[in-house]
Amino acid sequence: MTTETPAETHKNDVVQRRSGSTIPIRAVVAIVVIAVAISFVIVPLYDRFVKGAGEHPTVSQEGNVAVSLGNDRYEALEAEVSASDEPPESDASSDASTSNAGTFVPVAITCINVHNETIEMFWKNYNGEEISMGTIAPYASKLFNSYATHIWVWRVASSQEFIKETALGTEGEVTLYSSIETSWHETYEKEHGYPWLNVYPRGPLSKWVPDPVAIGHEDKREVGPAHCTNEGEAGSPDSKVNVTLLTVSTSPKVFVVDNFASELECDHIIAQALASGNLHRSVVKNIGEVSDARTSENTWVAPTESKIIENLFRRGYDLLKLNYSSDSWNVHAEKLQVLRYQVGQEYKPHDDYFAPAEYPNHKAAQAGHNRYATLFLYLSDVLSGGETVFPRANGTFVEEACTAEGALKVKPKKGSAALFFSMLPDGNLDKNCLHGGCPVVEGTKWAANLWFWDERYGD
């Protein structure tokens, strides 16, 4: 008979108490090793390559604005991808709602079809099979949830012609183009670091744009006619006034123009706006309706309404080296949009240009014409708030830019103006020219937009 040592007896007693029966030590060790392997190797691999890859994304229809573009020069498919901590709300019955969020990074994708044919979108599963996730009509959009590294394929619905395949990332934006001019668009984005947003093909900007040189650079100019200093009197067409263009951003190009208008001119424009009786709630240009994004009031004033206002137009044209004609003043510009912001009112960050992908009905934008410059005139001082903010200025994006330290903000100063450019020299639209009007904290803000176009606005 074999006699157990006290240590062996204790060890076997422990095994018996934990298992309820006598189990050899080697068997216990083997079980532990297998459990560890399952927990730390097999389960994660299963989650990553089988479970996660097999989960279907979710798709929801956002809008359907299928209209005729009337311009085959710009046929593109864009998908804007934004990473988030959680996917947006979707159908609760979707398999994707039970995904392993700890293993996969969820991304919310808005796919905008600006191709002139219906597009079919496919999710490619881990077996390489393309699973149809529905179609997108021309100029419609769809919102869907997916995960980083998931593969999507886009095809022309009628012919199943391949457009593009992409693996999703979390970098914030992916642009997909149709088979027409694909290489040109992709080369452009690769070389410049941002997508082409205007119609294609389109020639370079035909108007003069000042060289910003560097932040803090001052360009002293003489522009005319000179300020009006007496009510009802306009300066001589040959008279000049000294102004200074101070560079505050090189990308986008933003300048502060000091001494652009006289106090009398500012007061005159406000009086004209009030006398018109047409001050009304401002609308957002992309929907043509009032919105919490824009809470100011506005009206429109033409240069034909007074000599003083015409003087201001002439000076703005001269600043941008454009020829002014009283018979065809709307060749390059719109009427002056006069704005009133009271306490709490604001205009959240927006673009001044009309992106062709977002405005399929806009004949001018689809023909390559667009706003290229904004001369934003401050008609009053503001006790607090009311700054013009540029969240993407100088290579950085600042959220909540109105309250953030370091964001580019131009403070309202009566008679001064902010001059900025929504179009790049090559004719592309500048997405970095995103800007907004911060809420007025104290006082009233009066201002005016003078928008300039490239090419002919009046056509």
The main pleated sheet reads as: 9 strands, antiparallel
Oligomer: single chain
How many domains? The number is 3
Uncertain spans: 1-22, 43-54, 60-102
Approximate strand percentage: 25-35%
Order of neighbouring strands in the sheet with most strands: 10-11-12-21-17-24-15-14-13
The percentage helix is 10-25%
CATH architecture of the largest domain: Sandwich
Key descriptive features of the protein:
single chain, 459 residues, alpha+beta, Immunoglobulin-like, Jelly Rolls, 3 domains, 9-stranded antiparallel sheet, 5-stranded antiparallel sheet, 24 strands, disordered N terminus
How would you sum up this structure, described in words?
With 459 residues, the protein is an alpha+beta fold. The chain folds into 3 domains: 6-52; 58-192, von Hippel-Lindau disease tumour suppressor,  beta domain (Immunoglobulin-like, Sandwich); 218-454, Sandwich (Jelly Rolls). 19% of the residues lie in helices and 29% in strands. It is built from 6 helices and 24 strands. The protein has helices at 6-19, 25-54, 182-192, 263-276, 307-319, 363-366; strands at 58-63, 76-83, 106-114, 119-124, 130-136, 141-147, 151-156, 162-167, 174-177, 218-223, 241-249, 254-258, 280-281, 297-301, 336-341, 347-350, 370-378, 384-385, 388-390, 408-410, 417-421, 435-437, 440-442, 445-454. The strands form 5 sheets. It has a 9-stranded antiparallel β-sheet with strand order 10-11-12-21-17-24-15-14-13. It has a 5-stranded antiparallel β-sheet with strand order 1-6-3-2-9. A hairpin with a 5-residue loop joins strand 4 (119-124) and strand 5. The chain starts with 5 loop residues before the first helix and ends in a 5-residue tail after the last strand. Mean pLDDT is 77; it is low at 1-22, 43-54 and 60-102.
